[in-house]
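Practice problem 4.
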């Protein structure tokens, strides 16, 4: 993404494997709740001109009893933080791009963690798009650009990262 944005952009990556939209994960490290992470990112990096939010893969884990409505509600909480008037005033304003990750495929060594995800994941893009429209944010469906790795069904391989980085950079530049 940084390569495609060019030298006049400063990119801050706040990705953390295992992070969810709103859940503490008993099988992962403490504080995997993305809402806490987003608040910390807004406090740590000021001002921000634009942010991208791409979470939900880990929310599809069976232990969270995932549903389209529940996961979308978690994403709505993230947008509440990003669009909060105080946050926007501190960042003057900060544009928001909501990205729906590609659907999870139940395969490979972690397929048991995602039992049932194939039935829910493909429905998330339409729900996210409607949420983004209702909240006035930009939206990108990563599933239209890339697919999850066939090795484990959840992560992205290097080629997918490159394609997604280019697409996100183009979208952010147009905000």
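Answer key:
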């Amino acid at each position: 993404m940084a390569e495609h944005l060019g030298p006049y952009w400063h990119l801050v990556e706040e990705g953390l494997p295992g992070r969810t939209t709103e859940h503490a994960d008993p099988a992962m490290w403490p504080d995997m709740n993305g809402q806490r992470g987003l608040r910390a990112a807004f406090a740590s990096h000021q001002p921000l001109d634009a942010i991208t939010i791409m979470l939900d893969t880990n929310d599809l884990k069976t232990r969270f009893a995932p549903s389209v409505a529940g996961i979308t509600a978690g994403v709505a909480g993230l947008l509440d933080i990003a669009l909060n008037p105080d946050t926007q005033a501190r960042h003057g304003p900060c544009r928001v791009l909501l990205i729906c990750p590609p659907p999870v495929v139940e395969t490979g060594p972690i397929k048991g963690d995602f039992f049932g995800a194939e039935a829910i994941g493909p429905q998330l893009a339409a729900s996210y798009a409607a949420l983004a429209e209702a909240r006035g944010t930009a939206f990108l469906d990563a599933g239209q650009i890339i697919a999850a790795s066939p090795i484990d069904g959840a992560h992205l391989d290097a080629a997918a990262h490159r394609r997604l980085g280019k697409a996100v950079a183009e979208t952010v530049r147009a905000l």
